[in-house]
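User: Second chain of the day. Same drill as before.
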Amino acid sequence: LSLVRSLAGMHGGSVEVSSPGPWQGTTFTLRLPLADGGRPEAAHVPEEERAPAAGGLRIVVADDNVDAANILSALLEAAGHTAEDALQVSR
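Assistant: Same format as last time:
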């Protein structure tokens, strides 16, 4: 949480914590300002020049933080890829 607070502050944001009471759960809210300059214009690329979507890839996830590896694997699988843990692949 200390790291989140520091990163939020570096970007002009804030972190708020609230709880209705013991055993009622806790809500963490991260607020960051919108970037100046609005949205960039999308470049028009003809269909025949577009790269194909990268779906269904087999991706090996290597991270010494088990929780981070699990979260990344879940995100990759939700995007249609197969994610495998590097430790499992090496065995």
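Helices lie at 2-10, 66-78, 86-90.

User: Great, on to the next one.
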